Amino acid sequence: MRRLLKVGAALIGGLLWAMPALADYPDRIIKLVVPFPPGGGVDLIARFVGQGIAEELGQPVIIENKPGGGTLTGTDFVARSAPDGYTLVLASFAHAVNPSLQPKMPYDTAKAFQPIGLIGRSYNVLVTSPTSKFKTVGDIIKASKEKPGSLTYASQGIGTSAHLAGELFKNLGDVNILHVPYRGVAQALQDVLSGQVDMMWPTSAAATGLINGGQLHALASTAPAGKSSLPGVTSIAEQGVPGYVVDGWYGIYAPAGTPKDIATKLNATLNHVVQKAEFQRRVEPEGLVVTPGTPEAFDAFVQGEVARWSKIVIENKITAE
Fold first, then answer.
1. pLDDT per residue over 55-99, tens digit each?
2. Do residues 164 and 97 make contact, with C-beta atoms less than 8 angstroms apart?
3. Which of 61, 102, 103, 287 has the greatest number of C-beta atoms within 10 Å?
């Protein structure tokens, strides 16, 4: 009986200790880890989101950049952090691709994280040089079928959205085009501008300025049919490749085991932040369409992306090397 009383007292004490933590959350700085270097699009989105969350919750949100390992370094840091809601990660496209692309994952993507919510989606755009003879998706498909392997497409690296957009195009369009990977988007775009590479699928954020300035020609968007946000530019799906969609996306995760109350509070806060007109104005140049929702909806979306890109990686024999 004494033992039972001691166990009961310990349980009650634990509950009493935990209750203020949940009720008072947050009562200190929140860290939002960005698994990319400072200055890029992901970093920019993180800073806008972090500022909004800080204003809503009344506690500072610091951005900590932890690049490396194809986003594995920063993401693994969060997976190993205390599940208390004070360490979060801003995940993106790579989060859904790494499970099939990386030979040695330091964490289980499906089990290591508590989803908080989706921030938004963006789409890539198929571009060529303005002097290119390819003016439509149909032009590219026709030329590739006439001379398989003669056309090239650039990307900023293996496993990026620009790379896999091309691989998906190869599969769904039944064409053979050659991938030319670069170490960054700037040099890749430069070689498309000069005509050394035939085409590229950069993000809208990377390409819009060059398109508006007449330095690149936009053939099509990777958005679903009827959803292209680029004026006068239809989707690849609408130009003869049914089912073709490539989503860039941003979302927030906490470590697995984060209390549901905290995850729910963070989700509600995030949804409120991204629906503000000021936030949407700031992210518009990044081509981001905000898509708030529940943690469960975010989890289902990402698991669907993991399965989809795993199929492409396996079928096309893509490796990280």
1. 999 999 999 999 999 999 999 999 999 999 999 999 999 999 999
2. yes
3. 287
- Do the Cβ atoms of 254 and 83 come closer than 8 Å? yes
8 A C-beta contact, residue 288 and residue 45: yes
Domains assigned to the chain: 28-122+248-315 (3.40.190.150), 125-239 (3.40.190.10)
| Residue 174, Ramachandran bin (φ over 0: left; ψ between -120 and 50: alpha; else beta) | left
The CA distance from 88 to 266, in Å, is: 10
**Of 258 and 9, the one with more pLDDT:** 258
Q: Are 131 and 279 in contact (CB under 8 A)?
A: no
CA distances to 67, 90, 120, 276 from 249, rounded to whole Å, are 18, 10, 6, 18
pTM: 0.90
Q: Sort residue 235 into left (φ over 0), alpha (ψ -120 to 50) or beta.
A: beta
